[in-house]
Specification:
The protein is an alpha+beta fold. The chain has 2 domains: 295 residues, Naphthalene 1,2-dioxygenase Alpha Subunit, Chain A, domain 1 (Alpha-Beta Complex), CATH 3.90.380; 115 residues, 3-layer Sandwich (Rieske Iron-sulfur Protein). The chain is 28% helix and 26% strand. The chain contains 13 helices and 20 strands. The chain has a 7-stranded antiparallel beta sheet with strand order 12-18-17-16-15-14-13. It has a 4-stranded antiparallel beta sheet with strand order 5-4-3-6, with no helix packed on it. A hairpin with a 2-residue loop joins strand 13 and strand 14. It starts with a helix and ends with a helix.
């Protein structure tokens, strides 16, 4: 990200903190809670947003070498992702062309060949069929036409994208637009390495899980003893990029940024940066690392979602975290003391502890609230929720998914209307 933009964002956050006022979108909106429970809407979302839309399935670091692979199934298509012997990212339906059995049942690994466990048909990492067992008895097979079914795939800006439909096409740059594509490219995510991951399986609608990342109004309430020790909350620098947006909120270390010359200002010194990528992705940037959050509905159950969280680091980051050398330590304090605010100032947590702190906060605090919201929506008594003027990412997120499904727009709260009564 350009230094000039980082300075502008930090100044905006400092101004909000000094004035005691958050960003103001100028509008409050009401939204029916049936979007969290309606079975017909859930099916439309599944078909439009997940089965017919490009999906981020991982990062370049998930395929670190030639012949490495991993599998995913969260959007209803069993996908085998590989890096072939030429180093190219490929994606296939994880199904043998003989009888449709998965050619690998492993989550990840390195393999030059994939052998179907049913009848031992064999495929190369580029998807080509290279062996048919007892072909003299089975009958002739044109191997050129019976490789694994390939899915449209693209590797851009350190991210791995796949379209679930074999006949579809997509352009990642077009998906993002020029401005956002340029920003994402500036982070050099292709150089990051995999650090760890976690699955969160909860009884809440996938949109409620996404809502978790849409405002900082709750930080000093819900996260008083965790994130509230690190972040001020109720401040936001925000910009939209079509259906995507950028979200930045100040950490308490922004107070130290003020004392430095602007030429030395870095966003990571005083804030956390989040990109929302339509429809279900959150990228959270902190010093030396990025957490990728992929949120999926469970098909057929509007009250059930799966969240995949993974963390990736700059190659030197893990060494810095473990180092006793004071050099660079000022860059590593954000989110390291979440669960032990009594640690000495500037103490450094292990990378594993830092990841676990983040994952646990999402699961045990944010998603716990989401499960309560889910129950309220299912009761049929609470028929609307309200999005405040200080929650524009929520306005944008729900506006975009409604537009994609040809739903009516959110209804603005009229001036003078009692939002309490309307709920």
């Amino acid at each position: 990200m350009q230094h000039k933009l980082q300075v502008r964002i930090l100044k905006e956050l400092i101004a909000q903190l000094d004035s005691g006022r958050n960003i103001d979108s100028g509008e409050q909106y009401k939204m029916p809670t049936d979007v969290y429970v309606d079975q017909n809407l859930a099916e439309r979302e599944w078909q439009t947003l997940f089965r017919s839309h490009p999906q981020l399935i991982g990062m370049s670091a998930d395929l670190p070498e030639k012949n490495s692979y991993f599998t995913v199934e969260e959007f209803g298509i069993p996908v085998l992702a590989t890096r072939d012997e030429q180093g190219n990212f490929r994606a296939f339906l994880n199904a043998c062309r003989h009888r449709g059995v998965s050619v690998t049942r492993e989550n990840k690994g390195v393999a030059k060949r994939f052998v179907c466990p049913f009848h031992a048909w064999t495929y190369a990492s580029n998807g080509s069929l290279i062996g048919v067992s007892e072909e003299q008895d089975f009958g002739p097979i044109d191997k050129r036409c019976n490789g694994l079914i390939e899915l449209p795939a693209a590797e851009r800006y350190g991210m791995l994208w796949v379209h679930p439909q074999p006949q579809a096409s997509f352009d990642v740059d077009e998906l993002f637009g020029e401005a956002l594509a340029k920003e994402l490219a500036s982070h050099n995510l292709q150089d990051y390495v995999f650090a760890g991951d976690k699955e969160i399986d909860k009884r809440l609608n996938w949109k409620l899980a996404n809502d978790t990342f849409g405002e900082t109004y709750h930080f000093q309430k819900l996260h008083r003893d965790t994130l509230g020790q690190v972040f001020y909350g109720n401040n936001l620098a925000y910009e939209e990029f079509g259906r995507h947006h950028r979200f930045v909120t100040a950490s308490k270390s922004i107070d130290e940024v003020r004392a430095r010359p602007e030429s030395e200002w870095k966003l990571s010194h005083g804030a956390i940066l989040i990109y929302y990528l339509f429809p279900n992705i959150q990228l959270l940037f902190n010093t030396g690392r990025v957490s990728v959050v992929r949120i999926y509905p469970v098909h057929g159950d509007p009250a059930h979602s799966i969240t995949r969280l993974a963390t990736y680091c700059e190659p030197s980051y893990a060494d810095l975290v473990m180092s006793t050398d004071a050099q660079g330590r000022e860059d590593l304090r954000v989110m390291t003391d979440i669960y032990d605010p009594n640690k000495p100032a500037g103490s450094i947590a292990t990378l594993e502890a830092t990841m676990e702190a983040f994952y646990s906060t999402v699961e045990l605090e944010d998603y716990a609230m989401g499960e309560k919201q889910q129950r309220a929506a299912e009761s049929g008594v609470s028929q609307e929720v309200i999005f405040g003027r200080n929650e524009p990412p929520l306005h944008h997120y729900h506006r975009c998914f409604r537009e994609a499904l040809d739903m009516p727009p959110l209804k603005a709260v009229d001036a003078g209307e009692s939002v309490v009564a309307s709920a």
